[in-house]
Design goal:
The chain is mainly α. It has two domains: 206 residues, Peroxidase, domain 1 (Orthogonal Bundle), CATH 1.10.520; 116 residues, Peroxidase, domain 2 (Orthogonal Bundle). The chain has 16 helices and two strands. α4 packs across α5 and α11 packs across α13. It comes from Zea mays (Maize).
Length: 356
């Protein structure tokens, strides 16, 4: 059964990987001449952010993952709603989430703009913050060279955010298929899920797990029920990794092996299925997890980037917004022709269909 599940998605993985060929145009040294300070600016800002709020690293990791899974890594998730076009922030699993990640990216973008105006995309800043948040000493996670050169999307895809992102109640088959559709293997799924070694989840996301699942540790379920009653308190929070919630380590996998995965989708990785062996490997070998996580983060960051002349590099609007601003929203009275052209452009979902 497990082998059939993995074999069934092998062709999809290969096909989707071909769609990510634009990742080959990215380079870790992309800003070496145009904005060499971007790395130090982002890292210093993330260091301060994590010092002030340990949830900052988990917040930007979540934003990066959710952005890349819809349209590719193009910062479309950061675009705010407009009166006529909903953004992705309130769609699907994004709804009800913390705004910490969005606010932090915008703050860092402002700092980068001050040093290198109209040069570094929000998409690249998001990729750098995800890496630095993991790697900072307070979290103790791995590091990796981040390929850069992404451009920013001009349109969001709220429909894709509602359909493409895995939810907390996803089963293993759905998770494997969803990752395969993005060119990611079951091993990538197992490794990237380790990001849940930091961060929090709302009671609404794990209530069914701790009250209804039959593969949950009774002691763990009883503990979580104290903070998450069977009704109400939807916004009560619990750490995704109850063993070491503020350390980027392999505690998440050790929790899964003990039946203490907080989300149903987490425990699906260790439930007599195809990924049990990888969970055991990562749970007993922290170096193996760190190595695979870093490699999978690079693959995640290579999903469908806009490069070259595609997209844009977002600039601040009159209100001082940076990454959430639509390119036409702030100047529509002065450039009506541009607005009509943008409004008539092929939508982002159609662009993705051409890539896939």
């Amino acid at each position: 059964m497990a082998r059939r599940l993995l074999a069934a998605v092998a062709i999809v993985v290969v096909a989707a990987a071909l769609a990510c060929g634009a990742g080959a145009q990215l380079s870790a040294g992309f800003y070496s001449s145009s904005c060499p300070a971007v790395h130090s600016i982002v890292r210093q800002a993330m260091s301060q952010a994590v010092t002030n709020n340990t949830r900052s690293a988990a917040a930007v990791l979540r934003v990066f993952f959710h952005d890349c899974f819809v349209n590719g890594c193009d910062a479309s998730l950061l675009l705010d709603d407009t009166p006529t076009t909903p953004g992705e922030k309130g769609a699907g699993p994004n709804a009800g989430g913390s705004t910490v990640g969005f606010d932090l990216i915008d703050t860092i973008k402002a700092q980068v703009e001050a040093a290198c105006p109209a040069t570094v995309s929000c998409a690249d800043i998001l990729a750098l913050t995800a890496r630095d948040g993991v790697n900072l000493v307070s979290l103790g996670g791995p590091s990796w060279a981040v390929p850069l050169g992404r451009r920013d999307a001009t349109f969001p895809n709220s429909t894709g955010a509602a359909t493409d992102l895995p939810g907390p109640d996803s089963d293993l088959a759905g998770l494997v298929a969803g990752f395969a559709a993005k060119g990611l293997s079951p091993r990538d799924l197992a490794a990237l899920s380790g990001a849940h070694t930091v961060g929090m989840a709302r009671c609404a996301s794990f209530r069914t797990r701790v009250y209804c699942d039959d593969n949950v540790s009774p002691a763990f379920a009883a503990q979580q029920r104290q903070a998450c009653p069977s009704a109400d308190a939807d916004d009560a929070l619990a750490p995704l990794d109850s063993l070491t919630p503020d350390q980027f380590d392999n505690g998440y996998y050790r929790s899964l092996m003990a039946g203490a995965g907080l989300l149903h989708s987490d425990q699906e990785l260790f439930s007599n299925g195809a990924l049990d062996s990888l969970v055991r490997l990562y749970g007993t070998n922290a170096d193996a997890f760190s190595s695979d996580f870093a490699a999978s983060m690079v693959k995640l960051g290579n999903i469908g980037p806009l490069t070259g002349s595609a997209g844009e590099t977002r600039r601040p609007n009159r209100s001082g917004q940076h990454c959430g601003v639509r390119p036409w929203a702030d100047h529509s009275r002065h450039h009506p022709v541009t607005v009509r052209i943008l409004a008539g452009k092929t939508s982002v979902p159609a662009r993705r269909a051409r890539q896939a």
